[in-house]
Amino acid sequence: MDGSWQNPLPPAARRFLSDLFPGEAAVFAPEETCVFGTDASRRQAIPAAVVRPETEEQVRELLRFAHAERIPILSRGRGTNTVGDCVPTAPGIVVSTARFADILEISEDDFVAVCRPGLVTADLQKALAQKRLFYPPDPASVRFSSLGGNAATCAGGMRALKYGVTRDFILGIRAVLPGGEVIVTGGRTHKNVAGLDLTRLLVGSEGTLAFFTEITAKLLPLPEATATALCAHADPDAALTAAGDVFRAGMLPAAMEFVDRTCLDAVAAITPLPWSGPAGAALLVRLDGSADAVAADLEKLGRVLAERSPLFVHTALDQAGQDALWAVRTMLNQASFRVAPDKISDDVTVPRGALRRVAAGIRAIAARAGLPVLVFGHVGDGNLHVNIMHRADDPAERHTALAAREEILDLALSLRGTLSGEHGVGLSKLPFLDRQIGPTERGLMRRIKAVFDPHGIMNPGKAY
Q1: Fewest Cβ atoms closer than 10 Å to its Cβ: which of 184, 196, 301, 425?
Q2: Rounded CA gap, 47 and 283, in Å?
Q3: In a 3-state reduction of DSSP, which class is residue 12?
């Protein structure tokens, strides 16, 4: 690090933080804070300080102080988001939830879990499975992203098709406002229509309104059985048509994922695919329920998929066999960097009926740009992930990649879609937001923020 770097916090502020967060719970040196100023978007800025609370009272004192001193506060889970939500837009205090990660309660009678925001979502799911309970949201980062981060961005995942997104499984939130006041929204009942739904407002607010200290999650019974079918087709259009056939047959899978040929080639470079020969695209379908129902649904699914003359259909009922089939999807992130060293990641969503058109349009944009573009994602939701692979150290190639991205976003909007299905807006989508949301609506959002955060200290410059 450059030894000339000057911490923007005055000495009195540093003393306050050191007293409130003793030992290593507060750090100020840039070589220690720099890792907390970046996320999966690969953007970076140096925080003025990083603190690691372990109690709600520490959070309250911090937000009283930051509100009075007008110091930006940036809530941070595990830094897995891809849109720059964790990157400081102004020198401020990053509040890491890594030490604020307990399961406070699991109620088998109420079907709720009460957790601190830093809890890794997969750790919650493992604890629940031992009690035959189920928290369905499963973003791709589920093994290392936090429940609070998932709530802040309203993360989705593959099971959103059948079960819904994070917003649908958060019953209540305890949070601290700038100034230190504690609010409690929602509760632990599975139905609640008293007053405005502040819980759903907070979920997806990207850290711009309040700091979550407790999250009450809705639970379901753990499905008895699961099964997976992997269906390969000669081209993407056939695979997407087959996806529509599944719905027309009256089936609602737990998950239905699409991967195009660019994705398949990338995965094949790091691990053998569960078939031989070329394929233009693949469709992965997961079923869950009782053992008898899953077996019957798998048989029906096989008949439906066979009607489009696939290259093959592989099925699995045991966990190891399913994991082998799902590797085509789960290995994509690491496989993508075999294609090129850098990528622009987007997730656009269109109405289900527009999936074939948006996929064809993205292929045409990729061909014009001369860049490999990985297209995959949650086709049951109309939600496609688009990775534009390129070399960022080549200015011309970077410019081409950015131009292609803008074309893809405009394409999704032209089909009555959205700029983001589950990643949020953060910094990366903000320049394009006025193409989707009008000035009156954005003005309302800013006025709502001002009620929660009068001085604009919570994750400033993000989301809206």
Answers
A1: 196
A2: 43
A3: helix
Report d(CA 347, CA 388) in Å as an integer: 11
Contact 185, 173 (CB under 8 A): yes
d(CA 238, CA 445): 41
Place of tokens 């879990």: 113
Question: Which residues are CB-neighbours of 304 under 8 A, at least 6 positions away?
Answer: 242, 245, 246, 249, 251
- The answer to whether 19 touches 11, Cβ cutoff 8 Å, is no
Tell whether the torsion through CA atoms of 285, 417, 363 and 345 is positive or negative: negative
Q: What is the pLDDT along the chain (464 residues), one digit of tens a residue?
A: 455 567 789 999 999 999 999 999 999 999 999 999 999 988 999 999 999 999 999 999 999 999 999 999 999 999 999 999 999 988 899 999 999 999 999 999 999 999 999 999 999 999 999 999 999 999 989 999 999 999 999 999 999 999 999 999 999 999 999 999 999 999 999 999 999 999 999 999 999 999 999 999 999 999 999 999 999 999 999 999 999 999 999 999 999 999 999 999 999 999 988 887 789 999 999 999 999 999 999 999 999 999 999 999 999 999 999 999 999 999 999 999 999 999 999 999 999 999 999 999 999 999 999 999 999 999 999 999 999 999 999 999 999 999 999 999 999 999 999 999 999 999 999 999 999 999 999 999 999 999 999 999 999 999 99
**CA–CA separation, 15 and 244 (whole Å):** 60
Three-state DSSP state, 200: helix
Task: In whole angstroms, give the CA distance from residue 438 to residue 434.
Answer: 6
- Identity (one letter) of the amino acid at 194? A
Longest dimension (CA), the chain: 71
Phi (first) and psi of residue 281, to 5 degrees? -175, 160
Q: How far is CA 153 from the centre of its chain?
A: 6
Q: Which of 140, 162, 290 is nearest to 225 (CA)?
A: 290
Q: Residue 375's beta-bridge partner residues? A: 386
Q: Which residues contact 318 (CB under 8 A, 6 or more apart)?
A: none
Q: Tell me which residue of 98, 95, 101, 141 sits closest to 124, measured CA to CA.
A: 101
Q: How far is CA 442 from the centre of its chain?
A: 22
Question: For residue 357, how far is the Cα from the chain centroid?
Answer: 25
